[in-house]
Q: What sequence folds into this?
């Protein structure tokens, strides 16, 4: 070692560097920055749950073709929201309460010591899709089907898909809907059937409901536009808020989410041809150790929007949420495409 190296080592020993400096030169493999996507080739309509120090994310049933094969509600896991590994399928077999259809847009929550997965069972243009429930003792599954919660004809809402579960004041609720209104209903104590009156909370321009509580408000996130037209997809995430779970929900301009052209933009497509089309159907918001909120959602790279088998290549995207005057948005209201600071996790 030369004299300069010896001096630097001596200084380092007596005056350890600041945490950020040390991490930037870490040899442990910790991720300091990331660049979208955080997972590919496909994790459409994501949902995420944390168990211990690990996050588990789930997506719509899809065939990843030569990039990974068929997956029945895939499950992936991560400790930092950035580095994900495939666990496998969260179900051993497809539910059989419908003759045919895909298992779409799962919503997974920890309920007591179990994990509840509400899921959509539908085909494109299905006249009577529905919502089912599967339960597991572990976040990775296997989730065991409990059967149908309701279908469109029973509940009286066309295109009854995209469920979202929320517990409030000791009661269980389900919000759902896809371009025929978003609705809320209370569930029975076991979470397996609707109970009481359904309440419409948003109009026909939204699907993929998600509720986030902050500062005395319930924020209702929903996706508008076309989800699955490759680089031409117009999907985007909009938001409104209310002081009550059942609404009324208003956007930042004070317009009701029951109105067709309502909703404050959270994230939409990149203007650049190198960015992402159709960003939407966000997962649960995750808050890191420094109090920063993060949004997971899917989108399609405009330069590679589909798999070779024709499946929409809806990759998993991650971005910070910026709160401005009490309203959430992704910076620039479009997916990041350059290196970003990673979430700070345990």
A:
């Amino acid at each position: 070692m030369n004299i300069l190296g010896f001096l630097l080592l001596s200084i380092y020993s007596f005056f350890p560097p600041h945490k950020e400096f040390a991490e930037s030169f870490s040899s442990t493999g910790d991720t300091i920055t990331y660049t979208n996507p955080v997972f590919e080739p496909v994790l459409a309509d994501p949902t995420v749950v944390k168990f211990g120090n690990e996050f588990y994310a789930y997506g719509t049933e899809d065939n990843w073709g030569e990039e990974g094969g068929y997956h029945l509600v895939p499950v992936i896991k991560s400790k930092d929201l950035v580095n994900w590994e495939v666990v496998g399928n969260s179900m051993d077999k497809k539910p059989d309460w419908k003759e045919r259809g895909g298992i779409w847009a799962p919503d997974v929550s920890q309920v007591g010591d179990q994990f509840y997965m509400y899921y959509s069972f539908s085909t494109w243009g299905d006249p009577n899709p529905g919502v089912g429930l599967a339960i597991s003792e572990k976040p990775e599954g296997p989730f065991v089907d409990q059967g149908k919660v309701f279908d469109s004809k029973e509940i009286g809402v066309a295109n009854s898909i995209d469920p979202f579960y929320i517990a409030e004041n000791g009661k269980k609720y389900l919000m759902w809907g896809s371009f025929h209104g978003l609705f809320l209903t209370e569930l029975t104590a076991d979470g397996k059937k609707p109970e009481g009156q359904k309440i419409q909370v948003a109009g026909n321009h939204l699907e993929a409901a998600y509720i986030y509580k902050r500062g005395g408000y319930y924020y209702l996130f929903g996706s508008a536009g076309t989800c699955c037209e490759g680089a031409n997809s117009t999907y985007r995430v909009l938001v409104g808020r209310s002081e009550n779970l059942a609404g009324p929900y208003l956007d930042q301009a004070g317009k009701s989410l029951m109105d067709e052209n309502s909703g404050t933009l959270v994230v939409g497509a990149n203007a650049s041809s190198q960015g992402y089309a159709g960003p939407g159907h966000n997962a649960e918001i995750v808050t890191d150790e420094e109090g920063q909120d993060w949004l997971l959602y899917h989108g399609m790279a405009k330069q590679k929007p589909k798999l070779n088998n024709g499946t929409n290549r809806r990759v998993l995207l991650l971005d910070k949420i910026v709160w401005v005057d009490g309203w959430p948005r992704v910076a620039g209201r479009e997916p990041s495409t350059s290196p970003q600071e990673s979430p700070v996790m345990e």
Q: What stands out?
A: The first helix runs from residue 3 to 14. Residues 37-341 form a domain with the Tachylectin-2; Chain A fold (CATH 2.115.10.20). Residues 1-29 have pLDDT under 50 and may be disordered.
